[in-house]
Write a structure and sequence with these properties.
This protein is an alpha/beta fold. It has 15 helices and 13 strands.
């Protein structure tokens, strides 16, 4: 391996442009001078970007991105300091999935990392010659830089005055909760408070609890089920007024002597495991409504909009209960319930129908299929929660 070359405190864009113009190959490491925990690794060959990733915080970053783009990939384990590239490629090929999808995923991961690297005002850079990845599936020109990235980079440069990167830990202190609620209510009045949004009143207690956990921006976006960009923009007024503050990963380790919490673990304020409730419905409106109601009450929600993929998702996650619509494409609720009751792994999970059908024959058919409860739309949130609690505690619901 060749000698590592260093460039101290210079513009990351200049570093990348120089390397690309000279057609240099190797791994470019860009350190964030504001947070020693953060560094970005760009794998370059002949001036072309093959892959970009982070060093530390890898698990949180990848889990956040992959769960949204391909939930199945979330089952992979990632270790900080280890290149995940080979694991993703190996998993993808083992599933017999099209190579075009893999290239698209690798490009997305790389562009996301490149944005944060370029947003740094300066960097302590290193070049590790002859460092390679295998196989090479993506080659993106860096001279000039990809035009679609530049507006996002400019935006992140502005946001860095309040938060350095998605790895920064966010914290809402108890003494600031009152002022936080007041500002939230002011902004909520002029926003479109759709069910399940960050301005949904039903989600406010859950949002506050999440902000008190010192999660990274990546982890918080995953828990709140929003995009990192959207969450960052939403947080700006709270950060500007110092109602929500940031703490680096290093500071967190020194103060609390704890490591990054596992991305797959989500616990409520009492540190009790949160029950997972599956919602199978092709309506995004219903999904948002159910998600808002249940998350506020301490549940995690597994949203499934495609009933044909339900069995695979349910076996992997094994929820405590299943909420299901009747009218769905390809497989209706009755057919899917019958399949669940024939599955050794899933047949004991209680099922609640959430449907607009209110006929006697529909209810009778549901009972014959072993469906535990039948709730018609529109439903009152409290009634949903009361009967769901009885289902997960194996208490028979009220008479239907």
């Amino acid at each position: 391996m060749g000698k590592v070359m260093t460039m101290v405190y210079t513009s990351p864009q200049k570093v990348i442009e120089q390397i690309a113009a000279k057609g240099i190959s190797g791994c470019v490491v860009l350190h964030d001078p504001n947070d020693n925990f953060v560094s970005w690794h760009l794998h370059i060959g002949g001036g072309q970007l093959h892959y970009a990733t982070s060093d530390n915080g890898k698990a949180e970053r990848l889990y956040c991105i992959l769960r949204r783009s391909n939930p199945d990939l979330a089952e992979l384990e990632f270790v900080d300091g280890h290149l995940e590239y080979g694991n993703i490629c190996q998993w993808w090929y083992s599933k017999g999935m099209p190579a075009a999808g893999l290239r698209q995923l690798l490009t997305r991961l790389s562009m996301e990392a490149l944005v944060y690297a370029l947003a740094m005002p300066q960097t302590n850079a290193e070049l590790i010659p002859f460092s390679k990845i295998d196989p090479i599936l993506v080659s993106t020109s860096l001279h000039p830089l990809p035009a679609p990235l530049l507006p996002v980079v400019v935006q992140w440069k502005k946001w860095r005055s309040n938060i350095y990167s998605p790895f920064s830990r966010l914290y809402l202190d108890n003494q600031n909760v009152g002022a936080f609620k007041e500002l939230w209510q002011q902004r909520q009045k002029v926003s479109k408070a759709e069910p399940g949004s960050l301005f949904d009143p039903q989600r406010l207690p859950f949002i506050i609890r999440t902000l008190q956990q010192k999660y990274s921006l990546y982890r918080m976006a995953l828990v709140l089920k929003v995009q990192v960009q959207m969450l960052t923009a939403w947080l700006q007024p709270f950060l500007a007024k110092k109602l929500v503050t940031t703490v680096s990963f290093k500071e967190l380790q020194l103060q609390d002597n704890i490591a990054t919490p596992p991305p797959v673990e989500t616990k409520d304020v009492e540190n009790k495991p949160r029950l997972v409730i599956a919602c199978i419905d092709d309506s995004s409106t219903v999904q948002r409504q159910v998600q808002g109601i249940l998350e506020m009450s301490g549940y995690d929600v597994l949203s499934i909009t495609d009933p044909t993929q339900a069995l695979t998702s349910l076996v992997r996650q094994k929820p405590a209960a299943i909420l299901m619509d009747v009218n769905m494409p390809d497989i209706n609720g009755y057919e899917l319930s019958s399949m669940l009751r024939q599955s050794k792994q899933l047949r004991d999970i209680p099922i609640m129908m959430l449907t607009g059908r209110d006929g006697i024959m529909d209810r009778m058919k549901a009972r014959m299929l072993g469906i535990n409860y039948y709730l018609t739309k529109p439903f009152h949130p409290q009634r949903l929660l009361e009967n769901l609690q009885k289902l997960v505690n194996n208490v028979p619901p009220d008479s239907q």
